[in-house]
Amino acid sequence: MQPSKVELDTITLSAVISCCGKNGAWEEALRFFHMMAECHAELHQVTFEAAISACEKAHEWEKALHLMTDMARSSVESNTICFSAALSACEKSGEWESALQLMSVMA
Predict the structure, then answer these.
(1) pLDDT digits over 17-60, tens only?
(2) With a threshold of 0.85, does the pTM exceed it?
(3) Among 43, 100, 34, 36, which residue's Cα sits nearest to residue 76?
(4) d(C-alpha 28, C-alpha 17), whole Å
(5) Is the sign of the CA dihedral 58, 62, 66, 68 positive or negative?
(6) What's the CA gap between 40 and 37, in Å, rounded?
(7) Shortest CA distance to 58 belongs to which of 98, 94, 27, 34?
(8) How far apart are CA 16 and CA 29, in angstroms?
(9) Is there a contact between 29 and 54 (Cβ–Cβ < 8 Å)?
C-alpha cells in the first residue's frame, strides 16, 4: 500500500508549525510558516499563534514581534494567545522596553 499524499493547506501547515515549536525547532517552524505563501495557504490566527509561540519558546523576541507586525499587515486579528507569547518572548530575553511598546499597542 502506497502512502497517500497530504495536502499542504492551512490546517496541515499550522499543525506542523505547532509541532516544530513544541519541540524547539523554531527555525523549522518559521520555514513552514513562510512556505504557506508558496502553497497559497491562507494565514489564520492559529497559524500565527503557533509561529509566535515557537519564537517565544526559543526566546526569539524580535522574530515574535515581526510576526505580530506581519499579522496586522495580513489583516489577521491578533488575540490574547499571540500577545501573551510575544510578551513572554520579550520577558525571557530581558526586553522589557519592547514588551512595554507591545503593551501600548494592546491598550
Answers:
(1) 999 999 999 999 999 999 987 888 889 999 999 999 999 999 99
(2) yes
(3) 43
(4) 8
(5) positive
(6) 5
(7) 27
(8) 7
(9) yes
